[in-house]
Design goal:
The chain contains 13 helices and 12 strands. By secondary structure, it is α/β, with parallel strands linked by helices. Helix 8 packs across helix 9 and helix 9 packs across helix 12. It is globular.
């Protein structure tokens, strides 16, 4: 199983599988030395993977893998990558976890036209007899996978690092002192354009200042924002520190989880993001309701498991933050429905459930 560093930190091979499966870090492929556009990068990754496997097999004859599971298929695939790239570099079945498959449902006319002009040529990688299984965090996304594929499509549980630190991190005291008894709405993790920062800042401006305090915790990808959003974010976090606290630094997963647990509401209200998010796992573990948009994976699961609140789109987030909303949030957090939803979501989505899928792939491998 090949995983990039961020995923590797969240995964531990469970007892009973460790003799049959090995987690390999992304560095084995010297990923930082690769370059070019997405397709060139993907081709280079396959070549690097093949070279790495051949070298390992030469040093230990008979130890070539029976199955390769790419836990971040996104880097290994583009829309027009040919099927021959697998056979050219790999000699065993391949399965891949695809985080951002093509969108399903309503498409803009340009996207519909683009797909039509590429009919029969899209995602030919799946035509390879060696591509064994496609893992999707959102089973709904299977509808957008071209129908000429041969592989199995398997719904896969969401997973993340949900551990909490044994000792409260010092940053929690800073947050509590800054909040001064107000309810806390937090945005955590990698802070980039897709995280709905514009909607978040509108909520900061609209919320009753005596009721809510806002926290942004995690490394900010300033380059991902347009000039206007970048300017508003800097002004809000510099001039309005009584209402919003920015912690612009990389924080360990345990610290992020502790911030979520100490908050009253978690921001998962992303812009133009129909894909899965590990924030729902974190919300359920920490017992903190989340806010998301109605579309896509986040919206469906917030509604299905009663994990929080929905808005039509990220730019409408401010509409929630009227006087008295904090009381509604507190009541939901105490409700039996929310507690049951957290239990239900965690039962369906955890690291052990992911490895149950991996075990089934190994058991059902065809004879070689």
């Amino acid at each position: 199983m090949l995983a990039p560093p961020r995923l590797l930190k969240t995964l531990t091979v469970p007892i009973g599988l460790e003799q049959r499966a090995t987690l390999v870090p992304w560095a084995a492929l010297d990923d930082d030395k690769l370059f070019g556009d997405a397709q060139t990068h993907a081709e280079q990754l396959w070549e690097s993977l093949g070279t790495t496997l051949s070298a390992a097999a030469a040093s230990a004859p008979g130890r070539y893998p029976d199955l390769i599971v790419l836990l971040y298929l996104d880097a290994f695939i583009t829309e027009l990558l040919p099927a021959s790239v697998i056979r050219g570099h790999v000699a065993c079945p391949v399965a891949g976890l695809w985080f951002k498959p093509p969108r399903s449902g309503r498409l803009r006319w340009r996207e519909r036209f683009r797909r039509l002009t590429r009919l029969g040529r899209r995602y030919r990688l799946f035509q390879s007899p060696l591509f064994y299984a496609l893992l999707l965090l959102d089973p709904e996304a299977a509808r957008a996978v071209p129908g000429h594929h041969r592989m199995r499509i398997i719904g896969t549980p969401e997973f993340t690092d949900t551990a909490l630190p044994q000792v409260a991190p010092p940053i929690l005291e800073t947050i509590r002192q800054s909040a001064r008894g107000r309810r806390i709405y937090c945005l955590v993790g990698s802070i980039d354009r897709r995280k709905g920062v514009r909607g978040f800042l509108k909520a900061v401006a609209a919320a009753p200042p005596m009721e809510w305090f806002f926290v942004i915790a995690g490394r900010v990808a300033w380059h991902s924002f347009d000039d206007e959003t970048r300017d508003v974010l800097r002004k809000a976090t510099s001039n309005d520190r009584d209402r919003v606290l920015l912690i612009d630094e990389w924080l360990p997963a345990g610290t992020l989880n502790a911030i979520i647990q100490a908050s009253d509401l978690l921001h998962a209200c992303y812009e133009d993001w129909p894909y899965s998010s590990n924030m729902l796992c974190k919300a359920a573990v920490c017992g903190t309701p989340a806010v998301g948009t109605t579309d896509g994976y986040i919206g469906r699961n917030l509604k299905r498991y009663d994990l929080g609140f929905l808005v039509p789109r990220a730019q409408k987030l401010e509409a929630l933050f009227v006087s008295g909303f904090g009381t509604v949030v507190a009541a939901h957090r105490r409700s039996d429905a929310f507690a049951a939803g957290c239990r239900g979501y965690l039962a369906a989505n955890d690291n052990d459930a992911l490895f149950t899928v991996i075990k089934s792939l190994i058991r059902e491998l065809p004879e070689r």
